[in-house]
Every structure is written in C-alpha cells, then in structure tokens.
Amino acid sequence: MAFEQQYSICFLLVLLPLPFFTIAQSYKNISLSSSITAQEDSDPHWASPSGEFAFGFRKIGNAGFLLAIWFENIQEKTIVWSANRNNPVQQGSSVEFSAEGELSLTDIGTGKRTNIADGQSRDTGVAYAAMLDTGNFVLATRNSTYLWQSFDHPTDTILPTQTLNLNSSLFAQLTATNYSEGRFKFVLDSGGNLTLYTMNYAFKSTNFPYLKVQTGSGFQVIFNQSGSIYLIAQNGSMLGDPVLEDLVSTQDVYQRATLDYDGVLRHYKHPKNTDSAWSSYSYIPPNICTAIQEYTGGGACGFNSLCKQEDSAHTNCSCPPSYIHVDQDDERKGCKQNFVPQSCDKASSETDLFELKELKLTDWPGGDYEYFQNVSKEQCKQSCLADCFCAIAYFNEINSACWKKGIPLVNGRIDEDVKGLAQVKIRKGQAKEKGSLTLLIIGGVIIIISTSLVVFIITHLVSSHAKVSRLNPGVQGMNLKCFTFMELKEATNGFKEELGRGAFATVFKGVLASDTGKYIAVKRLNAVVKEHDLEFKAEVSAIGGTNHRNLVQLLGFCNEGQHQLLVYEYMSNGSLATFLFGEPRPNWNTRKKIALGTARGLLYLHEECSNQIIHCDIKPQNILLDDSFTARIADFGVCKLLKSDQTRTATRIRGTKGYVAPEWFKSMPVTVKVDVYSYGMVLLEIVCCRKNYEPEAPAEDEIILADWAYDCYKQKKLHLLWQNVGDDQEMDGIEKLEKYLMIAFWCIQEDPSVRPTIKKVTQMLEGTVEVTVPPNLSSLYVQYK
Asked: Where is the signal peptide (predicted)?
C-alpha cells in the first residue's frame, strides 16, 4: 500500500469478504417509556444479550457522566461511543426512551433536554430500542428495521461489522481522560479521500493532512470480523490493501479501531474471558512524530514540545530543558519557557547570562528564520547567543549549515533519523551552573536554593499569605501555589479522610472548591522539628522543579508556623503496594506498564531534569497510580540533589529496609545506583506479585524473594514463580518472566559499579538493548536481620 509522504506498511493477504454484513442479531427489547438515571456508585445500563456491551451512564473522573456504549465484560470497561462527549452531565441526569419513541438526554444541572436520535418519534414507527452484541445501539420498527443506530454516528472508535460512509469521521478524544473532541480527525470525505488530519483545536476545522490512504473513488470503510479494515468503491470492490489488519477471530477476542488522542489510528484486540489489557500491533501512521510536519500548528505535541514514538501504544510528549508544560493535565498543549527570556534591548550585554544545551537526535523542522552555510558549530552557537529572537540553533556538521529558530518552535521530535544537533538557548541560572542561587519566600521563610542543592533556610518576617516570590529577577522561581492552613483544612474537611501515614507525615484526601472540585492529596508533617524542616525543604525544592508524566506533581504548599503541608495531585488508584499485594492479582500487561513507567520516572530524575536527583526511597508505597494505572513516583522527602560536578555523595542512611542498597551499610559514598538497586527489588515484586520479605512464606527458602527467585532462575524452575504470579492465560511466554528477572538481578548486584544505569534498565525493558546473563547474586539475608 502506498501512502503519501513515503509511508508503507506490509500486510498479510486476506480474502475479500462481502462489503455488507448479514449477521443474525439477538437482542433484548428496551420497551417504550424506559429510562436510566446517572448514579455515583454504579454504571446503570441496558445490556446486550450476551452482556458484552452496555448502553448507559459512565462516570468520567470528576468531569461528570457520559451517556455511552462500552465493553462490559472486561476490567477496563472501554468506552466506544458517547452521545455527549463534549458535555458530560451531572449525577441524577437521565436518558429516556419515551412513549413516543424518542431517545433523549436530560441534564439535571442545566435542565437541558437533548434528542439523541435525530428526532425519531412514534410517527416514524419506532417500536423498541436494543443494545446489540455488535456494540450497536438501535431504534427499530416492529419488523426490526433500524430507523436510527449508533453505528451511523461514530465518535473515536469503529467496531467489527461497522462501516464508515462518505462524510463520516472519527474524532480523537482530547486527552487520555478527557473524552471531548480533540486535535485529530479520520474522515472519508465526499470526494472519496480517506485522510488523517490535524485540527485547528478548538474550532473543529481541519488544518493539516498527515496521512492519505486513498485519493478519490472511496465509498465506504469496512471493518470485518476477521480484523481487516479496508476501503471499497461504490461497486463493492476493494481499493488497494487494507488500511489496518491483524487477522483474528471475534470468537476469541474483542476488537476495536480507535483514533487515539495522540493522532494514531490503532487496531486493538483484547482476549475474551481474561483480565489482560488491550494490545495493538497494527496502526497508522508508523511514526506520528515524523508524520506531522505542518506549516501551521504545533505538530504532534504542541508548540515548543518534543514528540517521541516509544512503541505501538505510546507516544511521549516532553519539553526541552528549562521548558515546562503549559497544562499539566494536557501535555499536547505544548511547552513554555520556564525562565526569563533574553532582552532584545540588552541582548549583547546579556550574552554571558545564557548558554546552549545540546540535544542529539532532536529537531523542530520548519520555523527557521535565518540560515547560514560554511560556518562552524561555535559560530552557529555565538550567533544564537547574541540574538534575542533565537531559541534554537540547529547545526549540521555534514554541510556546516546553521539554522536559527524562534518561539514558538514547531513540529518538535526526537528520532533516530535526525542527523544534526539542536542547541537550546536557556538562562544559565536554569542549568547546572555552579554558584547560581535562587531566593524564594515561602510562607514566613526565605529558602535559598543553589541550582545544585538547597543550601539553607533563613527565618524572615513576612505575611503568612505571601506567594512564592522571586528576589533574583535573573532566575525563575518555582511555579507553586502558596495555600493558607485554613484553605487546606477546609479542602480536607478538617483532615478527615486519611490516605496514608508515615513516620513523619500523614496524607489526607481533599478537594479544591476553587479549582472546579479538583481532588488533591495533602501531606501534613506531624510536627515542626529540625528533621522535618529538612524533609519539607528537600521535598519542595526537589519535586517543585520537576516535570514528568511518571512523577507525582506538587501543586503547592503551606508553611505557617507549626503547620507544614505539601499539596499534590490526587492519584485515584492509590499506591503500587495496595495494587500489587491485594486480590485479585493485577494483570501482567498492567504490571509491565508500571515497571516501565517507574523506570522512566527515575531516568528523568537521574539524567533529564536540570538538577540530578537521587530519590533514596524507591518502594511500592512511594509509587502511585493515576486513573489509567500510569506509575507516578512520589515522596521526595529523603532525596539528594547532586551538584553538576558531583556523581556521588556522603550522607546518613536513608530509605526503607528491604530496598536499601548495600553501600548504605558500608558508609560508602552513594550514587544514583542506590535507586537502581531499590528499583530492582521493586521490579522483583512487580514480576512475582509478592513482597520482598514474607516471614510466613510456605517454605523457608521462599521467605526472601530475591534469594528464592534467583534459585528458581539458576535451577531452571521458573514455573514455580509463574504459578505464584497466576497469569497463565496472559503471560506472553515464560521467557518474558525470565527476561524481567534477569533485569532485576542486574539491578540488585552488591557492587554498584556492576549495576546498569537506569537508562540502560529502561532500554532493556523497552527491548532496545539485549538482556545478558547477570553475575551471581550474594545472599540478601543481611537486609532483613
């Protein structure tokens, strides 16, 4: 199949099925005058005969309720259609199939009544409604003629037996948790062209076609039951090769094709009768980051951002150094500079205040405003430093060419095919510049922060309502909100609902009335003593300057006398400890996702944020899970920040028994490898679904997980661990179990120099680096004495 812009995908040969489907459907009649009301603690619905699909209300986080169709028999309850995706309704709202045959939605909050089914009424002969086993909701006559069906009004998903007709389209949802129409569209237009577009969000007009599957003569898009999605002409003949294909049987798996919020159209499958996750092996375009190179618009991830295609199911949007996301809840809104930009009035005198950060395999194609040939890298750099309009100097050593780019940067991507060198201009105070200081007023305290380490705190008499303030105009402060104690007391209903408790602090659930009811987690330090001052100082300084999808976001703080509190975003699925060690056991695909997400979070702390951070207390209790079970590293209270020229540090023992690296006990200088060790212990727990120390284990040799797992590995008895995991139907081979164990054994080597970096660990998990046989392990019994 030939795509524009040199896209090509190889597909298996398939027999051409009939373009129209004649599938017998059983159904449960939904009689006239039936209704459903949205309820907080349930998903009221009308089910299909098999129970595989449901039509009714689904609660979407704090946004409200969608009137939707979803897969009912799987854990994720994946939504495939909704009537009100742009306007969720409140609890108590209702859908009514009236005596006149109208299907209408009433929003109790506004009193607005919306006719869902295009004004169908008794006059047109509607006799009943039905949720079919195909995932299609219909209004039908007495002789079962469909007068209206959800299949004719798709949102972001099509299902087997469903067709897309001329002028039909799929709209991607806005974010992973916001189901509103978003930034990408898949359409079969009136000219017969099947095209993927970026959208001028939020005006819903098309902007840039980043993939054309067929030009002209297309009549329908067909999704057959064998897993093939293809285009046909008006005479029913198949046009070209399938658009997507993954030959499967609907008897064994559920299927769907979804235009995801990242702009990729993916064919998903989910084994029936298991708790495994959706998987995708067929998708277009092959690389969304390089596919989008638009003249107007911010590319795949927004202005000033960087897009990286991680795998078939994940596209990562990140910011350049010293840039932060415009909206933490929507990474595709792009990034902004987190420093005071260069003044054009004083550009020549401010040159020494800025530097260029080199980024390999990185580019922002387009948006160049100046171009030089036959220049050196240093000349390219100096030209940018002296130019207040220059944000990026892109240098190509092959032809000694230099491009200068200004804000906003467009079409950013990280890709192996990028040959040049991008140099990002940032203020020196934002980099690892030795000797730079930032002064912040927090509550009644001045915190003086080095770019490498929090130096000290000086008491200062200022208003308790003071916001974070920059005393040094040359250095950007932390973008955190300063709360009063009474605000947080009210938000937590008097610190009523406890989420967790540690040695120095208790965490409470709260809700910010001033932020549309946004849930928060408030960490309250038990008392103000010197030790707690250090913890408070470390956590504010460390996490306040970080920004990554696998870290918990610090929203603000309170520091009023004896009241020291930290305010975080709320993680709805709790900690990995609760998730991992409870019943039923979490599925393998979700555990793999959590393992990789945790590694990526540590990689950011160790190598990608402006100040290298050693977390020092990686354990399941400090790994939290958001709505989609994405891993978020939390609790930076004992972390260490390293200076720019420092790779190791001497400090007292930190961390938790069972996860502490051996060098802590030997008074040796510690490095980032202590986090690698702790991660290895956590990885073993993720793989084996049990705690690293079980004194009540069935056998004495099973008490210490690492020793038992290593014995099973050496003796080729991995089936013993596999039985403990309980994932017989979803583990993709015992060799996968062995691979993850080997990675963990590398991480928990006694000698820190033998342990891999977290970057290499991440690459091994991703499959881009081979996992070799680890050295022998020493006994870990000393950890538990």
From this structure: 1-24
How far apart are alpha carbons 83 and 70 in whole angstroms? 12
Query: Residue 685, Cα to own-chain centre: how many angstroms?
Result: 23
The answer to whether the CB of 315 falls within 8 A of the CB of 307 is: yes
Q: Output phi, psi for 422, to 5 deg.
A: -90, 135
The annotation places the binding site for ATP at 530
Q: Which residues contact 406 (CB under 8 A, 6 or more apart)?
A: 367, 369, 389, 390, 391
pLDDT digits (tens, 9 = 90+) for 316-343: 999 999 999 998 888 999 999 999 899 8
Catalytic site residue 329? no
Helix (H, G, I), strand (E, B) or coil at 302: coil
Q: Is 333 helix (H, G, I), strand (E, B) or coil?
A: helix
Kindly state the tokens that stand for 437.
């200081």
202 preceded by cis ω (within 30°)?
A: yes
What 3-state class would DSSP assign to 681? helix
Q: At what angle do helices 705-714 and 673-688 cross, to 10 degrees?
A: 70
Rg (CA), the chain: 28
Buried-state track 506-515, b at ≥16 Cβ within 10 A, e below 16: ebbbbbbeee
For 541, half-sphere exposure in the C-beta direction (CA atoms, 13 angstrom radius) is 31
Strands 34-37 and 94-97, bridge-based pairing: antiparallel
Binding residues: 530
Instruction: For 651-675, write each residue's pLDDT tens digit.
Output: 444 456 778 888 877 767 778 999 9
What the block records as the tokens of 608 is: 């990608």
| Burial classification of residue 419, based on how many CB atoms lie within 10 Å of its CB (0-12 exposed, 13-18 middle, 19 or more buried) | exposed
The angle at the Cα of 307, spanning 156 to 281, to the nearest 5 degrees, equals 50
What pLDDT score was predicted for residue 164? 95
Q: Indicate which residue of 107, 241, 363, 617 is catalytic.
A: 617
Tell me how crowded residue 485 is: count the other CB atoms within 10 A of its CB.
18
- Alpha-carbon span 741 to 240, nearest angstrom: 45
Domains observed in the chain: 4-166+218-284 (2.90.10.10), 287-431 (3.50.4.10), 437-569 (3.30.200.20), 576-784 (1.10.510.10)
pTM: predicted TM-score of the whole model, two decimal places: 0.57
Amino acid at 223: F
Q: Confirm if 256 and 245 have CB atoms less than 8 A apart.
A: no
**Cβ contact 438:429 at 8 Å:** yes
